[in-house]
Amino acid sequence: MGGKGQAAVVSRCPCCGYRTGCVTCPVCFWTDPAQADPGAFVAVGGPNGDLTLSEAKLNFALYGASHPKYRDVVRKPRPEEIV
Ligand SMILES: [Zn+2]
């Protein structure tokens, strides 16, 4: 192909939008229910408790984390996760 081959395509976090590709995002601490339990997409009562994705997005905008209790454990996105 001739392009930069080292960067694998990593899925974006549905909450913060960074390409962390983790089940639990280190940037916002959202846990992707689809990745955590493929085939059983549960929006409520899953690994995020009763937190919905829209609430998590709002929390991320306000606190920099999907829930205020995660403010101290999240980290800044890395340059390769922002693209
Ligand atoms: Zn995230």
Structure notes:
- The model has no long low-confidence stretch (mean pLDDT 83).
- With 83 residues, this protein is mainly alpha-helical.
- The relative contact order is 0.20.
- The protein is 23% helix and 0% strand.
- It contains three helices and no strands.
- Bound molecules: zinc ion.
- Residues 13, 15-16, 18, 20, 25, 27-28, 30 line the site of zinc ion (ZN).
Write the layout of secondary structure elements.
Elements: H1 33-36, H2 53-63, H3 79-82
This protein binds zinc ion (ZN).
Zinc ion (ZN) binds next to loops.
Poorly predicted runs are none
User: Gap between N and C termini, in Å?
Assistant: 20 Å
Shape: globular
Count of helices? 3
What share of residues is helical?
10-25%
Look at the structure and give the mean pLDDT.
83
Oligomer classification: single chain
Helix/sheet category = mainly alpha
Number of domains: 1
Organism: Phytohabitans maris
Protein name: CPCC family cysteine-rich protein
Pfam family, one: Cys_rich_CPCC
Record keyword descriptors for this entry.
83 residues, mainly alpha, 3 helices, binds zinc ion, CPCC family cysteine-rich protein, Cys_rich_CPCC
In a nutshell, what does this entry contain?
With 83 residues, the protein is mostly helical. The chain has one domain. 23% of the residues lie in helices and 0% in strands.
